[in-house]
Fold:
Amino acid sequence: MSYETDEEKVEAIKKWWKENGLSVIAGTVLGLGAISGWQAWMDYQQRVASEASSAFEQLLSSAPTEKFEVIVKQAAVLKDDFESTTYADLSGLVTAKALYQAGDVAAAIAALQTVIADAPDPAFASIAALRLARIQVAENQWDAAAATIAAHDHSPAFAGEFAAVRGDVAAGRGDVAAARAAYEQALAQHCGLAPLVRLKRDNLPPVRS
Amino acid sequence: MLQTIRTRTQGWVAWVIVALISIPFALWGIQSYLDVGGESIAATVNGIEISNRDLDQRVQEARMKLRERLGARDDLAAFNDQRLRTEVLNNLIQDLLLRDVTQQLGLRVSDQDVQLQVLSEPAFQKDGRFEREIYERTLQLQGLTPVQFEAQVRQQMTGTQLIRAIADSEFVTRAEFSQYQRLIQQQRELAYAEFHTANFANSTPPDDAAINAFYTANTARFQTPEQVKLDYILLDAGALTTQTVISDDELRQHYNANQARFGQPERRKISHLLLKVASDADEATANQVLTKLNALRARILAGEAFADLAKQFSDDSGSATQGGALGDVEKGVMVPAFEQAAFALPVGEVSAPVRTQFGYHLILVTAITPPVTKGFDEVREQLLTELRKQRSDAQFYELGERLANLVYESPDRLEPAAEALGLTVQKSDWLARSGGTGILSQPKVLAAAFSEEVLTEGRNSELIEPERDALQAVVVRVAEHRAADVKPLAEVRDEIIAAINAEKASAATEAAANAAAKQLREGADWATVLGNAKLETPGLVTRQADNVPAEVLKTAFTLPSPIEGAISVGTARLAQGDMAVVRLLRIQDGEITANADLKTTPEVSMLAQVLARQVYAEMLKDMERRADIERTAPQSDEQF
Structure:
């Protein structure tokens, strides 16, 4: 389109504005609103995270000294107030430890299962599953432990750790050959507490032929 | 006219202009906008880039730290740069990853906690209290703003928070602790017998065929490395020093030239009275001031105190309050006109008015401290050492240059160079690549001696300075060379016989030990298998027992437990081909602390901590595995 004179051009612009002005303004307002809304949302998120973090720090620092009831209560409050944050899951791990140490095995197992179900990162689920399986071994729940391991032994990073627990399960069931193989695998993959795993392996009774 | 431009711009002219403008953009524009120009990337972690420049800087820092720890040693140069770089890169990737993961997970340490951390940092404290000034200055030195720094602190703290969450929540189960106690304090009852090679020595010497076979099978063992004998000229500034003869005259000259260093120059206590003359003042004004000053001078000469008048009239407010006193002054401090007058005056006499750029001065010298000089004899030794060092250094460089030229000009002999410079050609003994002593142990020298130019082509090496500041230089050439070789059979015959005998004896010992073990397993008792070996019965031993050889202990603690009448027997290899037959009789587990408090027992916490460390590392590994990490091919950080 070409215009012969400036007046015509002005006329065309005016016309265009009449047709589209409202939507332009609406669009701009909407856009600005979205930006400021997004910013407010981010600010809110940060504030929530900071508050959750403070609460979690408190939980961590009271965990070694306080009675388990206090820890569990603190963790429950944190969980209620900041349910959507990762801190809620992390506090689940802290609670499980406190509960187990206080002798409430069932509650500890439940806490770990919650962490596994809600874990925002698969690594947290693996770690929680590992702890769960170890408690199950300690309780002689061989089948439950084996099931936990089977369901969560996916990452090569934790394979050594799971192998060590699998060794414990096999040893508990009296399957010496499987236990030895599992311990060997755990050692080959640099599991934690390797010296203890080595002692366990060396202490296995002879395989009965 | 505007109209024509307007119509034109819609035509071809506009297109040409647009095209012209777009050329530079096409060539340079995009690149600079996207900022990928010279920035090469070492790795990306979930889309975050690590530039090679950043990496280089970190590597540099790591190297500096390494140097601080190891000192400036030669092997540092050999420290594998590529390995260091890879290590630094891995750490960087892990840092970035942790940062990214914590961000994704919405972990964030609160402002308060960050503040507390900064406030409690000892580097920002003075007398145990936070000082804002120190804080800001320290950051400035690092080129950081407080906001940037606090963001860094927050990241670091958030990372540690995740670590602590995982580590602090780790525990050890009751079953695990019990088993630990059972195993770690386990005792085992054992009996063992040592079988010594001496009892299985073979009296018949090996035949020639066996010796030959051993010789051909073990040539590597009888190899001598490639060796050279070197001729070399050593130029050593240290040796030149002692040869330098310096006459007394030269010493005196040196003494006179450096007298300033051997004492204190003359100093004078000076007072002055200044009447200012502005620098742009005309002659008449200056004269007025001069007249005024002369009047003051007359008053002093008439007996009034200089200090009083200076206090009253001097325009140099600093000294005026001190009665004009400027204190002790050396030469070279004051403006020339002032200095000249001041150092010519006798004590107590007021000078004539002196004109300087400041105005007119009256000067009074109140005291003179004469120059103090150390006598020539006092500093003679020092002078001698200094001069010698100077001379020998100069000589070293001069000779070095000439030597380099001479050995280059006659590349197949060292003698001409040695004769021309009055140096001697020294001869080394046989040297392998592993080096000799003194300067012949220097890697640079050895590299040159075994280089193609020197070794194969038989030429002189270049002038080599093995250490930068040692002021030593050397030229080498190969006088004799022998290739890597195998020692002749005759020379190593005895060695071979001994080796074969030892091998046979230890094989016989091992066979005997294995046979004994087998018999024991089949139910024989010790008496029938011992031969002339002696049975040891240490009884129950712990893992740390020191009355049993370590190898025997190790075998005893890895043997399967002798349950239900099973016989558990193994062998252990001792030093020098000796063997031991070990029988495990009984296992006694360590005692368990029933009802141990899992929260407060120190051993439990220790175990949990060790486990936690590993689990945490595995978590990082797992996150790394799932992250999108790309490493570009490593590049050298030295760009020439």
Notes: Chain B touches chain A through 55 residues (CB under 8 Å).
